[in-house]
Amino acid sequence: MADMSPFFRRKAPMAPGDRLVTLVRKPGCHLCDDAQLVIEKVCGELGVSWEQKDITEDRQLHDQYWEQIPVVLVDGEQHTFWRVNEERLRKALTE
């Protein structure tokens, strides 16, 4: 059997409980509050863990994301910024 290149292998889908959503935010940000409500709803319904990180407490996050706050990461990769679309987030976590 031929060895398939990793470029052609599909990742096995992860179970929602194995996923992690990270909200990168800053204090006093109303868009961050809005994003958190969507994340809490979707993650709560799917059983997905989530966390939040404050860019004012992490220089690397600040330098990387300060113009895009809030930023949502799914499993460490940027999913979206500014506004979180509930259906798009749900789809990303279930596919």
Automatic annotation (TrEMBL):
Transmembrane segments: none annotated. Pfam families: Glrx-like. PANTHER family: GLUTAREDOXIN-LIKE PROTEIN C5ORF63 HOMOLOG (PTHR33558). Gene3D superfamilies: Glutaredoxin. It comes from the Bacteria. It comes from Streptomyces actuosus. InterPro entries: Glutaredoxin-like, Glutaredoxin-like_YDR286C, Thioredoxin-like_sf. Coiled coil: none annotated. This is Glutaredoxin family protein.
